[in-house]
Amino acid sequence: MRSRAAAVLLAALATAFAWLLLRAESQGAIAALIALAVLAGFALLRTRLLDAFTRAALRDERLAQWLAFAAVAVLALLLPEDDFSLLLLTRVLIVIVACLGLNVQLGYAGVVNFAGASFFGVGGYTAAVLSRATGLPHLLLLLAGGVTAALAGTVLLLPILRTRGHYAALITIAFALLFRTFLEVNDSLGGPQGLKLPELRIGPIRFNDPVAAGPLEGSFYLKYVVLALLVLAFFFAVVQRLERSWIGLALDAVRIDETAAATFGLDIARWKIAAFVIGNFVIGVAGALSAFMIGFIAPNNYSFAESLILVSILLLGGVGNPWGLSLAAAIVILLPEKLQIIQEYRFLMFASMVVLILLFRPAGLVPRPMRRLPGTPR
Amino acid sequence: MPAEVIAQYAMNGAMLGMMYALVAVGFTLFFGVLDVIQFSHGDVVAAGAFAGLAAWTLLTSAGVTSPGLLLLAVIGSAALVTAALGALVARFIVLPVKSAPQLNVLLVTLMGGTVLRECIRLFYPGGSQPKLFPALLPATGWSFGTFLLRFDNVILLVSGALLIAATHLLITRTRLGLAIRAVAQDEETARTMGIDFRKVVLVTFALGSVLAAFAGVMDGLYYNEVFFGMGLLLGVIGFAAAVLGGLGNLYGAIVGGFLFAALQTIGAVALPFASAYKDVFAFGVVIILMAIRPTGLIGERASERV
Amino acid sequence: MSAPILACRGLSKRFGGVLALDGLDLEVQPGSVLGLIGPNGSGKTTFFNVLTGLFPADAGESRFAGEPITRLRPQAVYRAGIARTFQRSRLCLPLSIFENLMVGNHQRLEHGLWFNLARRKALARQIADSFEAARALLRIFDPPLADRMQEPAGRIPMIDRRRVEVCRALISRPRLLLLDEPSAGMTHDETVRLMDDILLVQRELGDLTIVLIEHEMSVIERVTARCVVLNYGRKIAEGTYAEVSQDAAVRQAYLGVE
Questions:
Q1: What is the rounded CA–CA span in Å between residue B225 and residue B242?
Q2: Which residues of chain B have pLDDT under 70?
Q3: Touching check for C154 and chain A: CB below 8 Å?
């Protein structure tokens, strides 16, 4: 009972901190808040409180999940008119979804994907082209974004599955570098200026209209927060179930030792394709959602550098750990947006942090815990 | 197609091929010696080009005008900087994670390359814009009809070839080369034979990076400009070329480099509407070739024991 | 003498300049334990690798229970009922002992997307049943180990890892078990114990055949009915341990020319 109260308190504190950070305007206040967080982070790491906290969270996962969900919802409700903060919040949520997909590929199956942002863009462009050219329901277009990204990934990956990991790296890097140029020279896809998307409509809900529901009034971004949160909750549950199943085990075996896995009947190609397709589907849906939210789509958002940011989030947070990557996504997205001076330096900063993490704490900030299969003793 | 146009395309292809070959040889050396893909290699090429540019800028602003001296300084500083970078990367980034899963080495070098690239962009004066690279070689040439065979291109080609030949001789005829080949074959045995593993690795990385320096300077001299991201595509192409020929295989890397350039040239001729398509075409063919022969056209060095 | 469960004829494999297997002929009687011995580099592990499809044979053929398995992929060889251990321990160290065992049980587990994502109760039941089966098997080899099933494999000592590896091969109830120096790194007593436990499982399963690569001759003498001696990829002698240990060619292979 005491640990539950402590958990709620911790969630409340975190929400308050996030609210303060998002509302803060002066660079000095922001810097102070970040310094505070860094100190707290070090204290957690040093005193092993972080590990203790993660173990407690694992013991009562349901509570942790509900608290996180509630924290985000409360945070959004506390910022009803703040367009910019809500936009940031939604961006973080969408990036977490994309990284969940990347995690299935890289964290579980060990399939390298340095074109995450490109597949994100495939999802976005699918949504853009289809929403402009057809009258298909937008919810379907979100799925379509996922499907095209999955198909594109399969075409890319199939030829090189018989080969080793660094070949997949080569192909995805080449794809990432060429994707943007390909978009820029294709006027049917908007060329360098990009494409505009129509307003997102799901059923009777129009997403560009401000919220006016009884006592609640606020920015239309509130609707996007809710949508993104629902999508995230869905994929979080799916990915978690995937990991805690025979499929998750098969993916890990393929990643850790292909030869042994093959000797015991695992079809390496099949599992790698499965992971890549599933991961890309998730990334594509996130991309489609992001495109609708921003309202337009342009090639230079989908560069190789952005793909590296996604991979960095995974590595910093803790490969294979959805909670870790969520924390890392928040840090990587929010920090450069609030602390203007590091905007220019963000690629350098995060790349250096990843190098350090890989050298000194390769498991990441929040290392992946042992798998908990349903039906096994606690 | 008139002969002059073919000759021009062939010349372009040869220049590109030489650059790719130089980068690919580096990749293949690193893989041979440590079984690692050093993804920061492309950015080391860029660093070399910028180091050369920096040397030229410093010397010209100090009043030096002799093109020979400037050229020497450009190449010299490029080689020094890249050799140092290569050795540093080996010592502090690659060797420590050698025993971790291969994926980690790939990631750490890729991120290391990003750090290098961003440092150039942020800290070199005007680094985010393409910068003019001086023309230090004679610009005249022999005319054959409308085709101009430029002296500078010929000099670059010949010196590139000499450099590769020198590397080949070093690997096959010197004691250092013998040590490199021994380590590439079997690290443990080489160590028990008294070879200083660390030193060999550092030297190999420095050597491969010096080749990168030359590729970078060559790129700058040929296109008359450099920019901070030039190493990315060059690195990916160099890696693809090394893979095409068979990782660990020196001749394979050279063949792969020229083959990729040939593919790009064919692509440029066949699909003239956008230059981006030549790269898509070339990579497409590479992917198909890798699917057919995963160990490369000439043959990868097998490295896993069951 | 019934039909051999495993029959190999003329098996050859070349690696670059080295002829690792040179026309190997070998037969194993069902339900027996065959010892495979020979000096280092004589091709014993290569034989396992070729048999299980990790390296395709250059020439020759192998038949298992009458069916040809010569150039099948490792996955198909496993499905035919052949399981193995590796000379160099190949466990997934970050995974738990239970998970490692389940890697070996792959063909008996359901891997469909719908089953694993949506039918969670049925999945939990299958996992629980597998857990019990794994525990029962481990208990034969080392009861304390059976109580540590959810610990990561990286945290247990080497001899326990070897036991887990043997169990991983046994959990799928194979018909042919290939053991590649299972006792490497163990003391004599530990080896005796391991082999006794393996033989116990063999008796319980009823139709398990074993091929054992070993360097400790006392083990070979005790547990095997017949031995095959390899040298330079060829069979140079065959018979009971007593017979082959007296064979002149065998002595020469191990000890050199007199």
A1: 26
A2: 1, 299-306
A3: no
